[in-house]
Amino acid sequence: MLNSILLAISITLMYSTPLVFGSMGGVISERAGVINLGIEGMMTIGAFTGATVGYYTSNPWLGFLSAGLAGGMLALLHAVAAVSFKANQTVSGIAMNFLGLGLSLFLSRLFFQGATMTKPVTEKIPKIFGKINSREHPVLSLLNMDTTVIIAFILMLTIWFVLYRTKWGLRIRSVGEHPAAADSLGISVSTIRYLCVILSGVFSGFGGAAMTLAVVSLYSATAISGQGFIALAAVIFGKWTPQGAYGACLVFGLSQALVVLLGGDKVRIPSQILSMLPYITTIIVLVLFVGRSVMPKADGIPYEKGTR
Amino acid sequence: MKKVLSSILTLALIVSLAACGGSTTDKSNSTSGTSTGDSTPKSSAAASSFAVGMVTDVGGINDQSFNQSAWEGLQKFSKETNASISYLESKQESDYGTNLDKLADQKSSLIWGIGYAMADAIKTAASQYPDKTYAIVDNSYGEETPSNVIGVVFRAQEPSFVVGYIAAKTTKTNKVGFVGGIKGDVIDQFEFGYRAGVAYASKELGKDITVNVQYANSFADQAVGKAIASSMYTKGCDIVFHAAGGAGIGVIEAAKEANKFAIGVDRDQSHLAPKNILISAMKLVGKAMDLVSTQVKDGKELGGTTQVFGMKEGCVGIPEKNPNVDQKVLTDAKVIEGKIKDESINIPYNKATFDNYISTLK
């Protein structure tokens, strides 16, 4: 029994961590008023860059940071389109998804002799207790989660602190709610938006790397398959707050863990029904417990100087 | 209005995610728009009267899987027979038809489609060019095979039986696992072949070895694959066989972390985790294509039939080098391979045949 509970916790955390990074990216960007539908693509380029740099340097941390950088660079493109050129943010975001995936596959073929898959990295991001023998410490080994789990949690706390306890956070939120008012008080709307969108890409990139450097150890074409969109749903689910989005990711991870644990041979539930569980749980929790979710007022609307 | 819109969007997102939780092919389809473009086929080998062309699936020619194996098979065929060969890469599903047309225009006499996703495209092309011969890997049209189309399928249950046998003889905990992608006829071959192999070996050993079976309901989600395998290893399995495509990468990762064994699929996957891949159940697409192409070139009428390839034809099997398997077990496995080849073991490929098999075993 204890083992099952611990296993559920470890699966929940493993599954939700890449989602948490992605959803933190979604929160920071949308709080500043820019919808980022390109999280999936930014996670993908991060996943690829992380695994590739990790493979060539044998240093997972360098891979992790480069992943953030790559995600940030892709996000910069989104920022240019969405903030400077006031393009439709939905379209631009979706374009980022294609670009992220396409670029990753293209570069992968370039670096790995035409293969759409990187080679496994020799060093993964370490676990919190390092390498321990599962036979000697069965309980401890179940609790031995990836360091990225902790990083994701700290990231959530940091974003919460910045958004609600600092001047910068107030500026970000005001730009997302009422950019004209913020502008009239001398806040540069486009600077804040640029910054937030780029950060959003950096976090998403981390999320991708959390997948390819911690959950598994290589990048393949299906490494990121829908996580970015689940992260976006988590943002809305969590009412555009970092703590809410974090919770939403955990709920999603937990229901995924239940699917895995209930899907063994003992319980006779068709696996197709079981695999709907995460999505059904999400909808039920959304309807029953979360209630009305209000997006930032200026979310998705390009800011034109002089408009009210 | 905006709120309504956003909530509808959320729901749509969630629902669509639920709906396509397992659509891996779609995923890779929309993605691979980047490989080096090619509107002219890449050809090799000197000109000869017989030309064979192939159209890849969206994975591209270097996918380290089916397409690559297919092209290697054709290259071998070309070396043996001096026929000219060429391929066209598909970037998305809509390319299938165009690529097939191009090859037909370029005087290929035999045109291959790689993967069951091309079933409809091949059928359409075959009716448009009745004088050409078409062949498709991993698809059988059954009774409705057009007279100029050859279906090529594999008895994946055979290598699965062998790896199941090896797993049962290697396990120390008497518990092994199977992780499938999405349940269906093809994955059933792997699952029931494997379970039959385990049952066969347990009878031989006089032991009771259980098989945990679980489906990821996805060929893409590596985290789910890893979670399932981790839970199997925690529950005492020490060997897990996967037939789950990309999700299987997660299974192999779980084996690495738990320091247990995983069994690879489709090709020798030992390079992914040299210490933790016990063995792989291989499907040699290229070999089958070489065989079929040679027969067609020699004028054999195969159109309208479905060709089934297995161990006897050398188109499925296990890798040659398996350092993680005990030498004695490998020798025993060779005997089993022999029995499969001379058909003295009838290997089940779905639930009904499996139940039947188990009852004969007792």
TrEMBL record, chain A:
GO terms for cellular component: plasma membrane. It is found in: Cell membrane. The chain crosses the membrane at residues 6-27, 34-55, 61-82, 94-112, 147-164, 194-213, 219-238, 245-264, 276-295. It is a multi-pass membrane protein. The keyword Transmembrane applies. Pfam families: BPD_transp_2 (PF02653). Keywords: Cell membrane, Membrane, Transmembrane, Transmembrane helix. This is Branched-chain amino acid ABC transporter permease.
UniProtKB/TrEMBL annotation, chain B:
Residues 1-21 form the signal peptide. It is a lipid-anchor. This is Membrane protein. It comes from the Bacteria. GO terms for cellular component: plasma membrane. Belongs to the BMP lipoprotein family. The keyword Mitochondrion does not apply. Residues 52-351 form the ABC transporter substrate-binding protein PnrA-like domain. Gene3D superfamilies: 3.40.50.2300. Pfam families: Bmp.
